[in-house]
Structure formats: C-alpha cells, structure tokens
Amino acid sequence: MTYKVIIPAAGLGKRMGAGKNKLLLELNEVPILIHTLRVFEKDDLCDGIILSISPQEEELFKELLKTYQINKVEHFVHGGKERQHSVFNGLKVLAGFDGIVLVHDGARPFIDTMLIHELVAVTSESGAAVLAVPVKDTIKKVANDEVVETVERASLWAIQTPQAFRVSLLMEANIKAEEDRFVGTDDASLVERLNYPIKIVKGNYDNIKLTTPEDLYFAEAIIRKLEKI
Ligand code: CTP
Ligand code: MG
C-alpha cells in the first residue's frame, strides 16, 4: 500500500543553537533535511511528499531540492507557530485523499525503510500507528527539585516519528484540537483525544531526533555505522 508523507521542516532549531534552522546543518556534507528526504525519495511506496517550510526559507529549500534531485515533493506549505500547525497546513492539501498519511520530523534522518513499511502495513489494518522504543532510563516524576514518584518503566515507551494515520482520522483529530485550542507535542496525542486506539510498532534507537548539539556527535556515529552495513 502506498502512502503520502508530511514533513514538518519549519522549526527554528532553538535548542540546537546554530543560529539557523538546524535542518540546514550538514552531516557528511549533506543537509540534514536532504538525508531525511532521500529516504522517502527512494521508497517506492511513498507516492508524494508534502513539505512544511518557513516562507523565508522557501527559495533556499527549493534550490536544495533541485541540487540533490529530490523530485517527490508535490506540495510546499507554510509552517505555523507550533509543529502541530505546520502539520495541519500540510494535511489540508490532502483533504479528500482516501489513504494513509505519515508524519515524519525533518530532524529524524535515520529512519529505516523496513520500519516505514511495517508501520504502513499496521496502519492499513488499524487506522493509526506510531513508531516507538522502550525507555532505557528510569523515569521519575519531579516537582520543585524533589522526586514525587517513580514511574514503572516497563510501561514507558519513547514515541518517535513516523506516525501514520488514515487521512480522514488525522483530519478529524486536527479539527477537534483546533476547536478545543489543544496543542500536543505529537500527532498521535490529537488522535488519542478522539479515543481512537493507536498501535505501537517497535522501532530502533538509531531513529533519533537531532535536537541539541550533542545529537550531532551521535549522528556522526550512526552514519558511520549505517555506512558499514
Ligand atoms: N517544526 C515545524 N514547525 C514548527 C516547529 C517545528 O515544522 N513550528 C518541525 C521542525 O522543523 C522539525 C520537527 O518539526 O523538523 C520537530 O521539531 P523540533 O525538533 O522541536 O525542531 P525545532 O522546533 O526546529 O527545534 P526547537 O524546538 O529546538 O526550536
Ligand atoms: Mg520545536
């Protein structure tokens, strides 16, 4: 089954502290965003990319796509204040499309194609699924610099992207979130508010989101590992 993918790329990269959109930083002399886009460009099941970008970066990003021969971007939309708004703007161009849409962070370049396919297969049955990995650290709730309680680790999973949905379901979830002025940190949290069950597909620990400067060192190590495979 084929799918479309929305890639939010309109962030400011504040935590990376590079003074520009972190997706323009290079790994192996190639911008992070291009690494991410290449995965979908090469995946035969992906039949269209919707890229959500800042208006002031539109020309720059279009040039990059030409340079690196990324041809599957069928729509550019403008990002919003929060990631959720950037995704919703992308989703609006898919209104009426009766299929599966993935949402994948531009800042996660190491997503594995086999896992994308597993996610799409599960979503075609269930309507909603996310990639996730078991949490490795012990997690405690803290208030005022004091431990409140330890959360049982066995039930904790770190949620990644891609997250995959039937288009109509994600649309309904975004409309409701907007009506309720709810802003979530991922797309599934909006669908959860409809009480719709969301399946977990176990991913891998390489699929990091490049967020803070030290993530770039991890990224270099992951690239070296993937090059050896
Ligand atoms: N994003 C977006 N629109 C926003 C905020 C984020 O499209 N208003 C995108 C980012 O470009 C990134 C993804 O959503 O690909 C995940 O967000 P995050 O890692 O938080 O990136 P930034 O928002 O750019 O970073 P920061 O929060 O540190 O400013
Ligand atoms: Mg952010």
Automatic annotation (TrEMBL):
<dbReference type="InterPro" id="IPR029044">
    <property type="entry name" value="Nucleotide-diphossugar_trans"/>
</dbReference>
<keyword id="KW-0808">Transferase</keyword>
<keyword id="KW-0414">Isoprene biosynthesis</keyword>
<dbReference type="InterPro" id="IPR001228">
    <property type="entry name" value="IspD"/>
</dbReference>
<comment type="function">
    <text>Catalyzes the formation of 4-diphosphocytidyl-2-C-methyl-D-erythritol from CTP and 2-C-methyl-D-erythritol 4-phosphate (MEP).</text>
</comment>
<dbReference type="InterPro" id="IPR018294">
    <property type="entry name" value="ISPD_synthase_CS"/>
</dbReference>
<keyword id="KW-0548">Nucleotidyltransferase</keyword>
<dbReference type="Pfam" id="PF01128">
    <property type="entry name" value="IspD"/>
</dbReference>
<dbReference type="InterPro" id="IPR050088">
    <property type="entry name" value="IspD/TarI_cytidylyltransf_bact"/>
</dbReference>
<dbReference type="GO" id="GO:0050518">
    <property type="term" value="F:2-C-methyl-D-erythritol 4-phosphate cytidylyltransferase activity"/>
</dbReference>
<feature type="site" description="Transition state stabilizer">
    <location>
        <position position="22"/>
    </location>
</feature>
<feature type="site" description="Positions MEP for the nucleophilic attack">
    <location>
        <position position="153"/>
    </location>
</feature>
<comment type="similarity">
    <text>Belongs to the IspD/TarI cytidylyltransferase family. IspD subfamily.</text>
</comment>
<feature type="site" description="Transition state stabilizer">
    <location>
        <position position="15"/>
    </location>
</feature>
<comment type="pathway">
    <text>Isoprenoid biosynthesis; isopentenyl diphosphate biosynthesis via DXP pathway; isopentenyl diphosphate from 1-deoxy-D-xylulose 5-phosphate: step 2/6.</text>
</comment>
<dbReference type="InterPro" id="IPR034683">
    <property type="entry name" value="IspD/TarI"/>
</dbReference>
<feature type="site" description="Positions MEP for the nucleophilic attack">
    <location>
        <position position="209"/>
    </location>
</feature>
<protein>
    <recommendedName>
        <fullName>2-C-methyl-D-erythritol 4-phosphate cytidylyltransferase</fullName>
        <ecNumber>2.7.7.60</ecNumber>
    </recommendedName>
</protein>
